[in-house]
UniProtKB/TrEMBL annotation:
Top EC class, one word: lyase
Record EC number: 4.1.1.84
One protein family per Pfam: MIF
Source taxon at top rank: Eukaryota
Predominant location: cytoplasm
Entry-linked PANTHER family: D-DOPACHROME DECARBOXYLASE
Protein name per Swiss-Prot or TrEMBL: D-dopachrome decarboxylase
Compartments where found: Cytoplasm
Length: 118
């Protein structure tokens, strides 16, 4: 069950209208998880600084069980997420930062229990 959070200082009007759905589909393909399990949040118009500059930028947080736990996995995921984000947001790679967090099944609650028991 991946969780993806995109924060950007770009105004909402500058974002593609279907960005959350596109990011959901891209995440499913990149991480090899069903889209029905992907959770996406997009926050725009935020006061942000990346690499010391408030120029247009974005930060992506990717959390998931079992697929973001190694440097090798995240190197491959990073390349694909950067391709998606640069194309959709019109930002250079220097203005985007991605953070990967591995999750354990007991850290995600769903249907009144945790994923460990589902």
């Amino acid at each position: 069950m991946p969780f993806v959070e995109l924060d950007t200082n770009l105004a909402a009007e500058r974002l593609p209208p279907e960005l959350p759905q596109k990011l959901c589909a891209a995440t499913a393909a990149i991480l090899g998880k069903p889209a029905e399990r992907v959770n996406v949040t997009v926050r725009s118009g935020l006061p942000m600084v990346v690499s010391g500059s408030a120029e247009p930028c974005a930060q992506l947080l990717v959390s998931s069980i079992g697929v973001v736990g190694s440097a090798q996995q995240n190197q491959a995921h990073s390349a694909r997420f950067f391709d998606f984000l640069t194309a959709e947001l019109g930002l250079s790679t220097e203005r985007i930062v991605i953070r990967f967090y591995p999750l354990e099944p007991w850290q995600i609650g769903k249907n009144r229990t945790v994923m460990t028991f589902l």
